[in-house]
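Running log. JK asked me to keep both predictions on one page so they can be read side by side. First protein, sequence followed by its tokens:
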Amino acid sequence: MKIFISGQRRLGEEVLRLALAMGHEVVGVCCPVDDNAIGRLATINEIPRIPAGSLRAEIMPDCDLGITAHSFDYIGKATRYIPKIGWIGYHPSLLPRHRGRSSIEWAIKMGDAITGGTIFWLNAGIDRGDIAYQDWVWIPPKLLDNPKKGAKYLWDTELLQLGLHLFQVALTEIEQGVIRRTKQRTDVSTFEPSIKVKDIYRPDCLMIEAKL
């Protein structure tokens, strides 16, 4: 398949490495100008780069599948229609629970016993697209003492690798023509704001239920 990747950091790099190892043609990547992970690997493999924040339909190459991997770029409607199959992304939570940027830390803060990762199809909403693949991991009680460090620990030890495994399954099946889509439940969905926002601990910000 011809694949386009919008991403950054280690997940973006490893997804690019995975796609190339599986024999796919990566026709371009969108990443920060100074990214030394996926950006470096793209340069080594002579893959065209688009600076993060500037991706739009007019400059995106034709492809079969778009992938977001630790990307904070909004993929607009026209851009979502460029890939023939669509766009998939990885979110480190059991969607529809904990939509938003700080999903791992909120899962720990709220005392969840488990969390996980989800490959989903992008749509106009934030983390609201149909679920394609999903798996779970335990949240050890010891992480409750420091949710910030706990979130990093879970990402580094389990959730990053879980995401790569789910991407491998997704790429294998999508190439075979298998398209899995399950709508997200709205009655159990939650959205929490980024933990970097000031005054995040206000009681009215502890949980915001997504209505769509």
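And the second, directly underneath as requested:
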Amino acid sequence: MSDDRRMTTDRFFGGVDGRLDNLRTMLEYVGSETPTEVALWEWLRANTAAESDSTIRTYVGFIRSIGLLEREDDRYAVTECAREYVDTGDRRVLFEALTDHVKGFETILQALSRGYRSDEEIQAQLRAYYPGYTLPQAVVGRHLEWLEAIGVIEQHGDHYVPTAFGQEITRESVSGEWLDETASSGGEGTTDGARESEKDSERLSLLREKAEQDATSTVSTSVNTRGVTEYDRSDNVRAYVMERADGECEGCGEPAPFVNRDGDAYLHAHHVLELSAGGPDSPETVIALCPNCHYRVHHGQDWDAYNRELVHTLSAIEDVPVDEILSVE
């Protein structure tokens, strides 16, 4: 990708939910009629929520800027890219059109894959990677809207998580254009820092190997002297998950509330597939949570939706499809 890509996006009619339907229908109309500007403006007023000429001009101008429309004399025509999208409905075509012409989309997905979930966190990552832009929240919000409309991300409360399609896109799109490791800190890494990072990575890999060896599809139980059922969880799985979390809750992203007497960050190991229902004990199904998030997932009014969000989070962290995590149910 060239460095002359634009940084800002504009919306299209229909909000997040109806945007792709309106866009595809307009492209079908343009492809069949090659309308004049007057005719296209009239069609948009009749078939969408379009009102002012200035909004229509802005929105259509953006669709032109990402290579889906072209203008010849006073008539509009669709590009080869637009024809492919109309014929196939493949959302990858739109994702590629956006990333080929606009900065930031791939950076947002990389930030999400690293656990940055809220508007503010995502905005901070973009600002770190693109220091030459002010990037107010409105700009970031329009990026997020397009990713949500295409089905790459989902919004849960005030957090965003990649969908299964988004995770697939992320795996396919990793390249030199993605967010640098140093971007979040705003500076260049030192040699000592690189060595420490390498050691941490080796330690995490070793712990994961041990966790995989201990992983079980079902957990054996026993009843203690008080008649309470206890589950034989793996210490190695828990050790890996805590090392992976690196002192931060993998649910909300906040630091652990305190350090315990052993010098470890105080976090809980939560099984997203309940052990009492026969769930597994494995790196892909255990997530490190602060006490507040752990209490929320067990007692909160939105516990079920939040637990599903945690499944998506684990899917991104462990690079395992959501369906594969849920397949043991």
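Observation for JK regarding the second prediction: The longest helix spans residues 191-214.
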